[in-house]
Design goal:
Elements: E1 23-27, H1 31-43, E2 47-51, H2 54-64, E3 68-72, H3 80-90, E4 96-100, H4 105-113, E5 118-121, H5 126-139, H6 158-171, E6 177-180, H7 187-196, E7 205-209, H8 215-223, H9 240-243, E8 248-252, H10 259-271, E9 273-274, E10 283-284, E11 288-293, H11 297-303, H12 308-314, E12 317-320, H13 331-345, E13 352-353, H14 355-363, H15 369-383, E14 388-389, H16 391-400, H17 408-426, H18 431-438, H19 442-451
Parallel strand pairs: 1-2, 1-3, 3-4, 4-5, 6-11, 6-12, 7-8, 8-11, 13-14
Antiparallel strand pairs: 9-10
């Protein structure tokens, strides 16, 4: 199996002019393969170093600083998969091409999830190898420009530029990404941008808040359940991992996931298979994992509330989004961007902030981060009836909602609605079963649905064929 090469790869597709400055390390315990690949790559103009074991390669990487590593999958001692993991623990951006003479598709998927840039099977064609090397080098040479990463990713600060550069570098791959940062910094926005810039962009992006649901419902939501798996499970439910097949699943607030589910998630990441609740059968999946949390997971690992092995599985490429107070130069751009979106959505005339209003926004404290800024901008646009939003309106908006955070009542309402949606989804809109799970009678349950404007019919599966 070889990675499909775009038509643009038929010629010299990389912008690199002098291949002699590109150092490639080839790792294989077969001396004949080492010699053959070296000849091909040197003929193409690359500088080559060979290693006959993964252990030798790890020792040589620090001093030789290769631009690309090509390694066999199956070797004596440390395997290519173990070498890949060790390389990316120190340098998650290092491109690695994996080779194998007897690998299965499962091996290729696992390798790409661990960060492999490409997976080629032996016997290898010389032209295919050189084209793939050039393709990988092109993707990792920083060819993208600022502003192309996502329509909602707005920044000018050095702190965010470094984060976006790293996110761009790993977007078009399967490597697992872990996003940390305070609540409201835009972790899901970055996750969506990574998905949109990947080869999976035509497939689903599914986000799930791991802290918003009880353990039983979260397990069913993630992995699915079989009919009759528990009271109220009157139909089979495939789960979000299977629904996201081919695409990306975003596990938000992963730090709130119960320990018992952490074990099951770890197994999914290791085996790339899911087993629905109540099933003895597993189902293969091809899903990219992006996770996020506002918690300090290293501290959670130390106190035993988060599994260390799962943490290292998720934390392959770490992205830390700084709080808005640490990147104040982004505030003017963000404020005008959100103001433009608000006026367009509400079909209002053009509005802009007065210079002194912008200065006040920049100097203000933002404990709620970008989310608080969005709410403040929307309130300013609503309160102001003129084209220019003055300082007085901004001061009023921030004074009226000094932290722009939800009240306890609002938080409870949001959690209750999320719970009801999950129950209805699991029960496929069957109110009797959903009410039983929720511990309410049908009258009370219907009242709750009405309060949250939820219609059970929206959750019923249309069956066009009899089973």
């Amino acid at each position: 199996m070889t990675n499909q090469i775009d038509s643009t790869d038929k010629n010299d597709i990389t912008d690199i002019k002098d291949y002699s400055k590109i150092r490639i390390m080839v790792v294989d315990d077969d001396k004949d393969i080492l010699k053959l690949l070296s000849v091909w790559l040197k003929k193409a103009g690359f500088e080559i170093q060979t290693c006959s074991s993964a252990e030798d390669a790890l020792e040589a990487i620090a001093s030789n600083r290769p631009n690309l590593i090509i390694t066999d999958l199956f070797m004596e001692g440390m395997s290519g998969m173990q070498l890949l993991t060790a390389i990316h623990s120190d340098n998650p951006l290092m491109p690695v091409i994996m080779l194998s003479g007897s690998a299965q598709i499962h091996d290729a998927i696992k390798a790409t999830h661990l960060g492999s840039s490409a997976f080629l099977t032996k016997p290898i064609d010389q032209d295919d190898l050189i084209k793939e090397v050039k393709r990988v080098l092109r993707l990792t040479s920083g060819s993208r420009t600022a502003g192309e990463f996502g329509s909602n990713v707005i920044y000018c600060s050095k702190e965010m530029a470094e984060i976006i550069e790293l996110a761009e570098s790993v977007a078009d791959s399967n490597v697992t990404v872990f996003i940390s940062g305070a609540t409201g910094t835009g972790k899901e926005v970055i996750a969506k941008a990574i998905h949109e810039n990947s080869f999976r962009h035509d497939h689903p992006f599914i986000a799930v808040n791991c802290g918003a649901l009880p353990e039983q419902l979260l397990e069913s939501e993630l992995f699915g359940h079989e009919k009759g798996a528990f009271t109220g499970a009157n139909m089979r439910h495939e789960g979000l991992f299977m629904a996201a097949n081919g695409g990306t699943i975003f596990l938000d607030e992963i730090g709130d996931m119960p320990l018992s589910l952490q074990v099951k998630l770890l197994r999914v990441l290791q085996d790339l298979e899911v087993r629905p609740v109540g099933s003895v059968k597993t189902y293969p999946i091809d899903v990219r994992i992006i996770s996020a949390t506002h918690k300090d997971l290293e501290k959670a690992v130390e106190d035993g509330s988060f599994r260390e092995d799962l943490y290292y599985r998720l934390n392959v490429v770490p992205l830390h989004i700084p709080p808005l107070n640490d990147r104040r130069e982004d505030i003017p751009m963000l404020a005008e961007f959100f103001l433009k979106k608000f006026t367009k959505a509400n079909r209002r005339g053009s509005q802009h902030f007065a210079p002194e209003a912008i200065e006040y926004l920049v100097s203000s404290s933002w404990p709620g981060n970008v989310r608080q800024l969005i709410n403040t901008v929307d309130l300013c646009a609503t309160l102001c009836k003129t084209e220019i939003i003055p300082l007085s309106i901004v001061q009023k908006a921030l004074q009226d909602r000094p932290q722009s955070m939800q009240t306890l009542k609002e938080v409870k309402q949001d959690c209750e609605k999320n719970y009801l949606v999950s129950v209805l989804r699991i029960c496929s809109g069957n109110v009797a079963n959903a009410a039983r799970i929720a511990g309410r009678n049908r009258t009370e349950f219907y009242k709750l649905l009405g309060q949250h404007e939820l219609n059970p019919a929206d959750f019923r599966i249309k069956d066009n064929s009899s089973e």
